[in-house]
């Protein structure tokens, strides 16, 4: 793989010295080897093998075979010039015999795999960042209640300590959870993600136990790896009311509460939003919040990770026409938007990704500035940003993805704008390094900057990979 040596340009957006340039992946989406190395099933194994849950009946059984090919993948990262790589640990590889009451023995093969990956990254000059939970909950814990059970949060804190103790001497950043919004609402309310439940009360219970799991894991990391930093990654929404009407503003308030504030407020302020509790009072009395929980959740973090892909447009539903559901989260049997019966997500015209998500980089800037205001003194990283597009492969095998380059260019400029306005953003992780198993969409959506032929497992860097390598080399975005 080669990069084009462009002529120096004075018209460039220069990023701060030491800015971290990375890419991100998730264990179930890339690893495969689901029955190897002592691993036991996760909720995504069960979900993807359930007929009708995933498009075309596809599963993560093989995925990108990263479990066997991680050295090849690290070599690609090194050629791109990545300075950091964010990956997730598969909990069922680490404590495969976990139960609701006991973490069970630590699996040396599971720890060994991630230890070897960390060593390979360090040898290539790439700093590892570990996400402890990217949705692959051990199935045994789901059978005992999953995230509706407080015991799952308690076991997660213990699991976090095991991983931090084993790898913390070499890993400078641990991210507790990735997008708990998806785990709670898509997994337990709309049912489009594992475990596929449709129970609003269960989803709100899961919200709290995920928040609690973060707090317990943060304390575990600080005990086991005192030199490592602690982070949390949230998929915050840039919520846009369709009009200036009071009704649309009310719709935006409710969506912002469910997506953003129900996670931000307990972590940053040690409280749940009173309006969200009032909105959902007919669903639950929030008695699952026990004395002392919010103190655990609100312990200071070092980094807040922000994932952003697309804006969220809302309006009041008048019931005069069929309700629109263009929230980007698929059509489930139920809605993830609890107590929002009169809120709809209108279809938007204009540019969209292959996921049907509207493209608007302004949301990146606005969210980063919001976090900077609400979490003063906390470092910020963009932990996911990217786009799925149908790639074009020419006769010479070149993967042409101009749309993805345009998307990345716009969003990197938006990150730069936020930094210039004062947001303490120190790194950017592009989603994703590899084409992979895209959850309920299976393999039909490609987010990677490296093309994967799923029949042969051949990796081919796309034009977007060359673009990103050039950005990294210059530490700047040329226009």
Would you kindly provide a brief summary of this structure?
With 479 residues, the chain is of the alpha/beta class.
Q: In oligomeric terms, what are we looking at?
A: single chain
Which shape, going by the Cα principal axes? globular
What can be said about the biggest beta sheet?
Answer: 8 strands, parallel, barrel
**Given the helix and strand composition, which structural class is it?**
alpha/beta
Number of helices: 15
Note poorly predicted spans: 2-9
Beta content:
15-25%
N- to C-terminal separation? 23 Å
Helix percent reads 25-40%
Strand order of the largest sheet: 2-3-4-5-6-8-11-14
Number of strands: 17
Rg? 21 Å
- Mean of residue pLDDT? 97
Topology record:
Blueprint: E1 12-14, E2 20-24, H1 27-30, H2 43-48, H3 66-80, E3 84-88, H4 91-94, H5 108-123, E4 127-133, H6 139-143, H7 150-167, E5 173-178, H8 180-188, H9 200-224, E6 229-234, E7 239-241, H10 246-269, H11 274-279, H12 293-297, E8 303-307, E9 312-316, E10 343-344, H13 362-374, E11 379-384, E12 392-393, E13 399-400, H14 402-420, E14 425-431, E15 450-452, E16 459-461, H15 463-474, E17 476-478
Parallel strand pairs: 2-3, 2-14, 3-4, 4-5, 5-6, 6-8, 7-9, 8-11, 11-14
Antiparallel strand pairs: 1-17, 9-10, 12-13, 15-16
What brief labels describe this structure?
single chain; 479 residues; alpha/beta; 3-stranded mixed sheet; 38% helix; 15% strand
